[in-house]
Amino acid sequence: MPLLINLRQLEKKDLTLQGELTPTELELEHLDEMIHVKKPLEYDLEVEQIDDAILVQGSLLLELECECVRCLKTFKQEMDLPDWAAHLPLVGEEKVVISNDTIDLTPYIREDIVLGFPQHPLCSADCSGLPKGAAAKLKKISGAGKFDESSSAWTQLDKLKLK
User: Fold this and answer.
1) How far is Cα 123 from Cα 21, in angstroms, rounded to an integer?
2) Mean pLDDT for each 10-residue chunk of the chain (163 residues)?
């Protein structure tokens, strides 16, 4: 269920929103092969209307399950956004989409979470990578290092005969 703000309730008083959003609701599955989201996002937000805009402030907390890009070990990393804020204009060129007097906060939260993902997750700053024997074994299993010239895209283009 998306995180919705009802504008009619907001006219009467400021709102407090607390709860969880699942990875499915946030559409965070399969975004990165090294980062997995298996637990729900916890949110604690204050919502207020200021003139012709909505101001949302609060905290977001999400646990990521990452694979180290050097050694491939799985580790957990907490994404904590304690001072998250969103300014949502109700009028003008960049106004938010209002449907049945509600605004969906989910896309704004999702965008900031994805931007906060680590680009190259490391289990520790001094990670030395795979042990030497494991790297050689991995190459042997995957066939890395071998180049099959017949499967090259250029080879296939060379076979193409144009008039």
Assistant:
1) 26
2) 86 90 88 90 94 93 93 92 93 89 92 91 88 63 57 76 74
